[in-house]
Amino acid sequence: MMTIRAMVPLGLLLSVPFAMAQVNAGPQSGAQMPPDYRGPEIHIPGIYVTPVAGAPFTAKVDIVSTQVLPDGTSVTRTTINHIARDSSGRIYNERRRLVPASFKGDPPLVSGHIYDPATRLSIFTAPMTRLARETYLPPPRSPSANPNRPKPTPDLPDQDLGTQEVSGVPMKGIRKSRSLSATMSGTGKEVVISDEYWYSPELGDQA
């Protein structure tokens, strides 16, 4: 198992019983890159494991959130995510509560996500309510369905971070930066947000 660290500026199956609800959903995006930073928010999505067959792994993701307050002081909170993928491409992602840096042990589990690309069955679990939601996703739309749709462009050019090894796995890195106005940042100052994405050709996934 490898450990992935995610610095945020602002898997495993559950054993508890669940009530199941089945619904239909819209198309799922085929993009592998995580969504760009949307501005300050409490919810941190962590790392999404893409359903790639033939590249199984398990990992623990360490997430650190540092919030700079208007008086110049900062508050640091942390959490972890356990993620996994089996040889058939089935994936497990999770989200845990942010806790103080002094917290010991695993933070409380907020939600889990299990997805099987063979059946396109997506299951979201909520341990606190002991409820789960089943969704069968339709096939993704063809990229040519809307060829005139404008593509988002970054405020600043992407930066190639080269290659490094994480737990013995070679990773290629890229830094994407966005600038937030003083109003949007919530700090009274213009803020530049930089996100680092690391891609492993061996795992077929971003981290």
Secondary structure elements and pairings:
Layout (H helix, E strand, L loop, with lengths): L1 E8 L9 E6 L32 E12 L5 E12 L5 E6 L2 E2 L8 E8 L4 E6 L4 E6 L22 E8 L2 E12 L1 H4 L5 E10 L4 E2 L1
Parallel strand pairs: 1-3, 2-9
Antiparallel strand pairs: 3-4, 4-5, 4-6, 5-7, 7-8, 8-9, 10-11, 11-12, 12-13
Structure, explained:
By secondary structure, the protein is mostly beta strands. It has a domain at 2-143. The chain has one helix at residues 182-185; strands at 2-9, 19-24, 57-68, 74-85, 91-96, 99-100, 109-116, 121-126, 131-136, 159-166, 169-180, 191-200, 205-206. Residues 6-31 and 150-154 have low confidence and may be disordered. Keywords: Signal. Residues 1-21 form the signal peptide. Residues 135-186 are annotated as: Disordered.
